[in-house]
Amino acid sequence: MKLTTPSYLKKGDTVAIIAPAGILINRETVIKKAVDLLESWGLQVVLGDHVFTQSNHFAGSDEQRIEDFQKALDNPNIKAIWCARGGYGSVRIIDHLDFNQFMKQPKWIIGYSDVTVFHNHIHNLGVETLHAIMGTSMQDDIAIINESVETLRKAIFGEDLEYQLPSNQNNRVGVVTGQLVGGNLAILASLLGSKSQLNTTDKILFVEEIGEYEYAIDRMLFSLKRANYFKNVKGVIIGDISKVKENSTKWGMPIENLILNVLPENIPVLFDFPAGHEPDNRALVMGRSIELSVKNKQKSNIKFINE
């Protein structure tokens, strides 16, 4: 089923920056850079009332974060919602949000990491979302994140997205077409059994992760496997698997082998897509059909299909 594409942005449109999860204490300067970026593109910006509020671990209480998100969902003048950061907390508010007005006038939901909760839930509602940098990403050197910033701009303004990726000997070659779904591995595993769980049949799954032990990555992948995430999937894209922790007992194999051992042998698998928790974090339109061409000695290719 083709998903609904929210309206692309144009100059003069308004973007809301909200914090649905972790705190933003002492991040005012970074968020100001995010505001400046959007304004340099000719967009207007509004901040959620509780963006810089702190309630222990969270950017405000659950009720305050729900309020900011709901206002942005319901306001017809807001054309996109850009999450300021992830962390943890989105799952605490997802079931309290009313998407009725959003479904009448879909708008872009933008972010990664903990925002995977919204990507998956909204995919099941039938609307595309955008896996891309967040407001706090502007803390990184602009020279390093320039490509990430540019792909965000292209995505929200409706320009074509296509990626050429360096060869990787661990890639499993193949050419497939399908809807792109997925996000952060830990979040995908945490959503199993809920109404935000994905149906990956005939789709292409993207995963990324940070700061986990190899055994934990293996466990989460097997959780997805037992939930049939890989049974009828058409292909898998592996983003950044960053800052893998060392266990006292050696795992005994590279992370690429760990991943390949869980996945079916008859599907293409692409490693090293630049998206996840590293500064180079290219935009991905979740729910959009892509053409995935994976090679292991030549450049691979991902092309988003604009229908």
UniProtKB/TrEMBL annotation:
Pfam families: Peptidase_S66, Peptidase_S66C. Coiled coil: none annotated. InterPro entries: Carboxypeptidase_A_C_sf (IPR027461), Class_I_gatase-like (IPR029062), LdcA_N (IPR027478), Peptidase_S66_N (IPR040449), Peptidase_S66C (IPR040921), S66_fam (IPR003507). Signal peptide: none annotated. One of its GO terms (biological process) is proteolysis. The active site is at 113 (nucleophile), 208 (charge relay system), 277 (charge relay system). SUPFAM superfamilies: Class I glutamine amidotransferase-like, LD-carboxypeptidase A C-terminal domain-like. Residues 177-292 form the LD-carboxypeptidase C-terminal domain. Residues 15-132 form the LD-carboxypeptidase N-terminal domain. It comes from the Bacteria. Keywords: Carboxypeptidase, Hydrolase, Protease, Serine protease. The keyword Acyltransferase does not apply. One of its GO terms (molecular function) is serine-type peptidase activity. Belongs to the peptidase S66 family. PANTHER family: MURAMOYLTETRAPEPTIDE CARBOXYPEPTIDASE, MUREIN TETRAPEPTIDE CARBOXYPEPTIDASE. This is Putative carboxypeptidase.
